[in-house]
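Subgroup meeting minutes
Present: P.N., E.W., G.H.
Scribe: E.W.

1. P.N. recapped why we're keeping a running log of single-chain structure predictions: easier to compare across weeks, and new members can see raw inputs and outputs side by side.
2. G.H. added today's entry (284 aa).
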Amino acid sequence: MGQTLCCVQVDQSTVAVKETFGKFDDVLQPGCHCVPWIAGRRIAGHLSLRLQQLDVRCETKTKDNVFVNVVASVQYRALSHKASDAFYKLSNTRSQIQAYVFDVIRATVPKLILDDVFEQKNEIAKAVEEELEKAMSAYGYEIVQTLIVDIDPDDHVKRSMNEINAAARLRAAASEKAEAEKIVQIKRAEGEAEAKHLSGLGIARQRQAIVDGLRDSVLGFSGNVPGTSAKDVMDMVLITQYFDTMKEIGASSKSSSVFIPHGPGAVRDIATQIRDGLLQATHN
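Output recorded in log:
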């Protein structure tokens, strides 16, 4: 009905290309327009001004000979003031953009090793965008943004990378565990050394107290009982300690201590050995 009345409707975010007898005449903006076909005018086609997206998957090889699939996402749109160029100069816009993306990625990625490809994906996207912007502006298109959305190496390469990362983490964990065990052993050794030092001090003080007690006993007994010598007092003390020890052994049902020789007469021999040892140490 609109064509019969020579009226044409152009939708929002769309422009129409008008021709007169097959030659470009004008770009019609959204709204209602009169296109009298009887005068040789017609609508050659419509061009969308909406933002469009094209995902391009490109297989290439890195500098370290790893094949990867790089997926680039290109967002573009036709320019209203260059609608005639966008309509007439390109027959397949998406194929043209795809060709430029292939060219830039396959020229950039082979200069990088695989790890650098992951790290420099923003630089790769920028290089693709700059090249597309220069090429597509002549055809009436604007490149809004270009993103590298995926870098997909071969499955064997990904498996190897995962194994390398796992091994590195295990190595780090083992190192940390060994360091922790080292610290524990050092602290344990320091604790044992400190404990032995304190134990030695305790034993030394205990022996000093015993010596002081024996000296006081000998001096007190000699002073209270005239005619007794230090030897007599030491013999009596040793005999007393001997019987106290035998009493404690006999009182315990689980005792495993045995004195050899164990007769009471052996106390004099023990006393003689102790006294001779002390006298020998004094003379030396």
